[in-house]
């Protein structure tokens, strides 16, 4: 990672552990996910001016009209995606700053992540290069379409809100797989779709607030 962080004060390991304890108090009980998040320097995924707020339970701007999700949402969505098991081949829609991608990379056998904004993807590609992941592939692509050339996926996680569940993503979900995404426009809800023998089974969960999923490339 870059040389900016000092590991003291608001970006110290102690601050990170306070974030983990807060997540437990908020109801996150997946210790596997919490362990990964306790190790990752989240402040290195935001601009230097915002580093002191990186562990607050808020989303923060990352440029290009995008945000890094609040820690609770990252933990909640990752826990839902894992559903208590191991992650195999995962597709992430919305690479953003790469924090969620890195959490997934620590948990999954294989991670594909697509981002529609080219300059944002370039910046994140440089950032993630320092982790030396060999099982993470980033691609400049329209998230509505998923990544059909690499499908099927055991799990799909979308970090932008769509008005409906894209049929293209359901078609790329393996039998027994799970898709986690925010759904809605004015009012959004977290949504889990399990691909069962009887087809996709959808469960709507708590209200959330995400940037909208946009079509096309930027």
From TrEMBL:
| Keyword terms | Cytoplasm, Methyltransferase, S-adenosyl-L-methionine, Transferase
Put simply, this protein is called Protein-L-isoaspartate O-methyltransferase
Function text:
Catalyzes the methyl esterification of L-isoaspartyl residues in peptides and proteins that result from spontaneous decomposition of normal L-aspartyl and L-asparaginyl residues. It plays a role in the repair and/or degradation of damaged proteins.
Protein's UniProt keywords contain Cell membrane: no
Reaction(s) the record says it catalyses: [protein]-L-isoaspartate + S-adenosyl-L-methionine = [protein]-L-isoaspartate alpha-methyl ester + S-adenosyl-L-homocysteine
Among the GO biological process terms of this entry, one is: protein repair
Pfam families cross-referenced by the UniProt entry: PCMT (PF01135)
Organism source for this protein? Answer: Leeia aquatica
GO MF terms here are: protein-L-isoaspartate (D-aspartate) O-methyltransferase activity
Which positions are catalytic residues? 69
What Enzyme Commission number(s) appear in the record? 2.1.1.77
Protein family (similarity comment) = Belongs to the methyltransferase superfamily. L-isoaspartyl/D-aspartyl protein methyltransferase family.
Q: Cross-referenced CDD domains, in alphabetical order?
A: AdoMet_MTases (cd02440)
* Predominant location category: cytoplasm
Q: Which InterPro entries match?
A: PCMT, SAM-dependent_MTases_sf
The enzyme's first-digit EC class, named in words, is transferase
Entry's localization field: Cytoplasm
**Which PANTHER family does the record associate with it?**
PROTEIN-L-ISOASPARTATE O-METHYLTRANSFERASE (PTHR11579), PROTEIN-L-ISOASPARTATE(D-ASPARTATE) O-METHYLTRANSFERASE (PTHR11579:SF0)
């Amino acid at each position: 990672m870059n040389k900016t962080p000092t590991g003291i004060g608001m970006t110290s390991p102690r601050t990170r552990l306070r974030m983990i304890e807060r997540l437990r108090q908020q109801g996150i009980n997946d210790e596997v996910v919490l362990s990964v998040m306790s190790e990752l320097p989240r402040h290195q995924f935001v601009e230097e001016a915002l580093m002191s707020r990186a562990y607050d339970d808020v989303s923060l701007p990352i440029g290009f009209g995008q945000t890094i999700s609040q820690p609770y949402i990252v933990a909640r969505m990752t826990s839902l995606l894992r559903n208590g098991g191991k992650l195999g081949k995962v597709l992430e829609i919305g690479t953003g700053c790469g924090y969620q991608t890195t959490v997934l990379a620590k948990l999954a056998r294989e991670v594909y992540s697509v981002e529609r904004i080219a300059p944002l993807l370039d910046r994140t590609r440089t950032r993630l290069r320092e982790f030396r992941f060999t099982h993470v592939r980033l691609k400049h692509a329209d998230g509505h379409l998923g990544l059909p050339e690499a499908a099927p996926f055991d799990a799909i996680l979308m970090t932008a809100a769509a008005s409906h569940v894209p049929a293209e993503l359901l078609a790329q979900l393996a039998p027994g797989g799970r898709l986690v995404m925010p759904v809605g426009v004015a009012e959004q809800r977290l949504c889990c779709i399990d691909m069962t023998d009887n087809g996709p089974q959808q469960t709507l969960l708590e209200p959330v607030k995400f940037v909208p999923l946009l079509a096309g490339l930027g």
